[in-house]
Amino acid sequence: MRYSLTACFTLSLVVASLAEPTFGPYNVHEKRSAIPIGWSYTRRHESAATLPLRIALQQSNIEFIDEYLYDVSHPESANYGKHWTAGEISRKFSPSEEAVSTVRDWLVENGLESERIRVSSTKGWINVNVTVEEAERLMNTEYNVYTHVSGQEHVACEAYHLPEYIGTHIDFVLPSVNFDVKLKGRSGSQPEPGRAIGQPGVGTTPKTTGTISQTVTELEQCDQYITPICLRALYELVYEPVATEKNSYGVVEYTPQAYLQSDLQMFALNYSTDLLGKEPVMVSIDGGYAQTEYQGFDYNGESALDLQYGMSLVTGKQNVTLYQTGDMVEGASFNNFLDAIDGSYCTFEGGDNYTVDSQYPDPYGGGYEGPEDCGTVAPAYVISTSYGYNEAELTPFYTARQCAEYAKLGLMGVTILYSSGDYGVAGHGDYCLNPNGTQSSTGTIFNPTFPGTCPYVTSVGATMVKPNATVFQAQPEMACMEVIYSGGGFSNYFAMSSYQKTAVDYYLQNYPPDYPSDIWNSTGMSRALPDISANGANYVVAVDGQFELVYGTSCSSPVSGAIFTMINDARLAIGKGPIGFINPTIYSAGFAGAFNDITEGSNPGCGTEGYNATAGWDPVTGLGTPNFPKLLENWLALP
Ligand SMILES: *[C@@H]1O[C@H](CO)[C@@H](O)[C@H](O)[C@H]1NC(C)=O
Ligand SMILES: *[C@@H]1O[C@H](CO)[C@@H](O)[C@H](O)[C@H]1NC(C)=O
Ligand SMILES: *[C@@H]1O[C@H](CO)[C@@H](O)[C@H](O)[C@H]1NC(C)=O
Ligand SMILES: *[C@@H]1O[C@H](CO)[C@@H](O)[C@H](O)[C@H]1NC(C)=O
Ligand SMILES: *[C@@H]1O[C@H](CO)[C@@H](O)[C@H](O)[C@H]1NC(C)=O
Ligand SMILES: *[C@@H]1O[C@H](CO)[C@@H](O)[C@H](O)[C@H]1NC(C)=O
Ligand SMILES: *[C@@H]1O[C@H](CO)[C@@H](O)[C@H](O)[C@H]1NC(C)=O
Ligand SMILES: *[C@@H]1O[C@H](CO)[C@@H](O)[C@H](O)[C@H]1NC(C)=O
Questions:
Q1: Where, by residue number, is the active site (predicted)?
Q2: Which of 1, 78, 281, 399 is the most buried (most CB within 10 A)?
Q3: Of 437, 367, 435, 431, which is closest to residue 396 (Cα–Cα)?
């Protein structure tokens, strides 16, 4: 057979590209440091087996998100308060045509016929069914079968590579290094409170020291018993909301955590009669409901605390929205919640990770069979969540994707608060990091919590009234060192945002922590937390028909959320917008003195004394606790 010279040339080019794609250097795109606990390598995967390859494309303009957010959130910006609509956000960030076509062309050039390649309607995904052999060649990797101790198998690789010019368009590829499997075999067993794989709340429920026998009414006893009146006195929160039809405050709970209306009413009777007969406005996400089947502090403590204090401080006039997320079988994660309040997030940066996030409708049966909530729920202006992960439990990709979503919510004018954790410099469950990246109770490396390490949320630490101090004296509070320690420190994943640079530099220069640089991120370049704090000790909470004493940053977040909700009320009442992402504002010079500086106490963990609370910002209590009148005055002065 003979061809013309031109044809022959063309043919050899095709052959060459099929056999050995020549697309510049390959870079490692993702790599796993260890096989997750409970799994072991079994065998190489069969080369003829099919893999449903899902390629997550990178969003456009995501690198400018910090800039966009500052533009609407920095008090000195001309566009302060000019928040974006959901449509504007979606148009700004969806993947570019160039990303889609570059990746598609690369697949075609590697021998995958274009009829096999499907681009999702959102352009977030490129899907193609390939053989293991094709995938291995494409990404210069090896696929293996791993087996869980339960017998369940999972296909994954240790690392994969992409040509440099492709990697810049791709977030990640599935299946690959991740173990995004939900283990089966849950039916019939009692759902563990917040301990299912990947559920938020692992070790994060507040702590209790037991029930209270005597009557608590005294404002003089706030060092032993915190009630709403103590918090009003500490933060000078004297405010009756007037713009309640325009305003909203959301508290997020993850099933099986649930509140009991009888507890809310018991609390109302003793401490907040304006809540008599009131319920939170329940919004069910992914089959969430206030279950009553399982009771006890571990099921009811968190929700009881969040709602009793959140609702009391905004008064009975202001409705509080309860975002009850996840069913009894699968539970849910932050991403499930975020999917519900922002339809563009369901597919954003490739979609959820089912190791961490629950899949709806429940693929295993027995759980919520309805469709996943995706953009079905309106976000409140302020959203408080008292659950969390350790940053190290999640991958940088996963956390970056979720963090960008918090920035988008900020762009839309939503204030996002997360508790900073209850174990000082250690992570939830008192776990610290080992040099190889794993976590254990014997680890020595500080272990910060996520989402607090995301620079686009406001992380809330905990304080307490000093023993024998009264709320009437100056500086009555210190860092919480009773039962819990305020979570704080420096991220290993996220760079510092400029809003906190001056404050954190001041701390690092004046109080340089004397710890070796291999146990904390001492670069001075990473996101530092918490941002603020509020009381987190000795809360009197009605749980399962009894008053208990409760501790944790779980207390501080809903209390801070209530305070910011009242500030929104005052702004909405005079025709201004909500405060949105507050960090650039609260760290700005104009807000100096609007938080009560906490200068005593520390946050021990990982076998150390942790950091000290100091004058100015510190990685224990942040800027300090809210001073409502000053915050109100400052925020009313902003456009
Ligand atoms: C891959 O194969 C599965 C099962 O046959 C099919 O449901 C799916 O649509 C295919 N995906 C693509 C992108 O062709
Ligand atoms: C999904 O999460 C698990 C656990 O954090 C992680 O090992 C895996 O790499 C993640 N997958 C992706 C695609 O981020
Ligand atoms: C709540 O009120 C009841 C009735 O007045 C009282 O007996 C009880 O001691 C109070 N509980 C607390 C913890 O204050
Ligand atoms: C508060 O919630 C209740 C119950 O859902 C509703 O009837 C009422 O209209 C709401 N009030 C405001 C001001 O939104
Ligand atoms: C990581 O290090 C810890 C302690 O240093 C050790 O116990 C653990 O086995 C190591 N894990 C892996 C996967 O190397
Ligand atoms: C608080 O006061 C009590 C009673 O006066 C006293 O016994 C206790 O030592 C004081 N505690 C502190 C920390 O000052
Ligand atoms: C410290 O934080 C920076 C920025 O977040 C990050 O690039 C760096 O890898 C971190 N260092 C360590 C030792 O984790
Ligand atoms: C905290 O303060 C104590 C007492 O002044 C000091 O010895 C210690 O070094 C400080 N710790 C840190 C991490 O700065």
A1: 302 (charge relay system), 306 (charge relay system), 554 (charge relay system)
A2: 399
A3: 437
